[in-house]
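Minutes, project check-in
Item: structure for the 222-residue chain
Input as provided by the requester:
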Amino acid sequence: MPPATPTAPPEMLVWDLDGTLVDSGHHVPQAFVRTVAAVGGHVVSPADVEAAYPLGPPERMLAHLLRRPTTEEDLSAYYTQLGATGVVAYPGVPGVLRAQRAYGPVAVCTGASRRAAAVLLHDAGLADLVDVLVCAEDARRAKPAPDGLLVVAARLGVAPDALAMVGDSARDLMAAWNAGALAVAAGWGHEYDPAVPADVTIRSPAAALALLGPAATTGRTG
């Protein structure tokens, strides 16, 4: 069972990247598929890539998909492919992040590597809108472990239970609970599953801002 929902409205929002801020559900798997074909000489499917997401950053995923240790050449090929996919932000995201700065810094907690996150944020036009970026290199364990969110809380100077983690996957929601934060399901994301419990389910990025005020609704849904 998930832990009890925090009773006070969160002080700060933390966003997942893939499938929450950027519409990468097709782009990232295709970048891996093309990379494996180019440097490994065999075929993997987008489903194979998605099944490897819990492994963490690209070097681990590539090692699994290539069936051998990852080289720098492999990583360079992947980042080239990723930068060519034309990933975009979900509708309304840039304006929401600008508005969030009225409440405090914009924080992102992602399982992507710092280089991958930089590519995605740049291509989606969000690079200048993120104040705190915690990536795979910053956390000892990947989501659903709480490590990344604990780093975010430390950098923001707040307790973990003052955060609301907005993400589309079960890993994001479990990471929030494991950190003592509010688990907010991003109902527009490509990994969103209405059968997965959340403290709050929102249907648009703009709805996250309402969580920061006294009118926030924190009844568990899903």
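Outcome recorded: The helical segments are 27-40, 46-51, 58-66, 72-83, 93-100, 114-123, 147-156, 170-179.
No further action items on this chain.
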